[in-house]
Amino acid sequence: VSTQSTWGYQGKKYEVPIKRNYIESSELEKIKDNSGKVLRYYDPGYLNTISATSKVCFIDGDKGILEYRGYPIEELAEKSSFLEVAFLLIYGELPSQREYAYWRNKVMKHTFIHTDLGQQMKSFRYDAHPMGMLVSTLASISTFHPESNPALQGEKIYNNKKIRNKQIHRLLGNTPTIAANAYRHRIGRPYNTPRNNLDYVENFLYMLDRLNEGKYKPHPKLVRAIDILFILHAEHELNCSTAAVRHLVSSGVDVYSAMSGAAAALYGPKHGGANEAVLRMLQQIGKLENIPQFIEDVKNRKTLLFGFGHRVYKNYDPRARIVKKIAQDVFDVVGKESLIEIAQELERIALSDEYFIKRKLYPNVDFYTGVIYRAMGFPTDMFPVLFCIPRMAGWLAHWVEALDDPEQKIVRPRQNYIGPSKRIYQDVELSLIHI
After folding, report:
1. pLDDT tens by residue, 78-94
2. How many CA atoms lie within 13 A of 61 on its CB side?
3. Sign of CA dihedral 202, 206, 208, 209
4. pTM (2 decimals)?
5. Around Cβ 14, how many Cβ atoms within 10 Å?
6. How many CB atoms lie within 10 A of CB 118?
7. Which one of 17, 110, 360, 370 is CB 3.0 to 4.6 Å from 314, fit for a cystine?
């Protein structure tokens, strides 16, 4: 349903249609000043800009609602598995039993990476950051598969659904193996060969932890905990890294370079490093008796509060409630993490303090996730890697959607130029020193 709005600019009036609560930029381009220059919309960070039409994920931040393809996140976390949710995100429907068996088989077969790719990973320095290894290795996969690179085979190569699906299977299968190898490389242990008779998350934990046990299997409670965390982190609309996927896809670049670019965006501390920041904050607080002073320092802007509030959610992050429940299952197996009491008390005080209530600073998904990962023995530099593995499903869902979007154009934002205007060139001998 469209409605009309009347805009006035420099003595002229324009009728601008509003569709589903948004205005198309083409309508704004009709509004010009007296010299004929088009009126532009300035929006750093795209805080109020719609750049794509999508069916993948729905968020109502005011009500604390998150849905994947129409399914509430709470229901998927309770009843589904990560691989099933990945299928849902990418193809739009939950798989039938036959579809799931085929899907699982294809993904698990691709957990085996090219031998040369594994050898390449061994060439990283002993102390290379796991996320840096992951970003670099994802990009290099494209060099192993020139037959599916649009730059070499033509930009319509991914219109072939068989070729498209093979890249999906490969990326979902390769990513946990690359992640496990990065972890093993960091601790100086040989890489483990995947076992595709195990489930997706079970195999990932096996590749991380197996030493020389012939029949090693991860604890089922820990497997389920990670599986749920993977579901919760699989997709979250047009966040920074997902927007990067769509940005890169618009150029026609191969999917591996696009996913590497998304992973690089996730590497940033403002995006994928949030749960690590929570952990460091809790360590900084140190003791329960230090919390009141910490709260005062936050109010006086002397320190930062991590794990509370969200760009989208103005209510309790629905994922945070689920993560809080998972924590206890993990602690039952590995023992209680010492920082959990600080986290729980900090949450209790913040949720009852008018300062935080007024600003709608509720716990987000990162608040308890870092504590769980720490309890399971993950080093903090693996946290963004653990974020990247499941988010690959969401990135691929948007990759597929962008490929099929008839409105897709190469991304080319405008700028607000405030630099100097026309200047006269001077020879270097006559130039003044400006440094």
Report:
1. 999 999 999 999 999 99
2. 12
3. positive
4. 0.92
5. 15
6. 16
7. 360
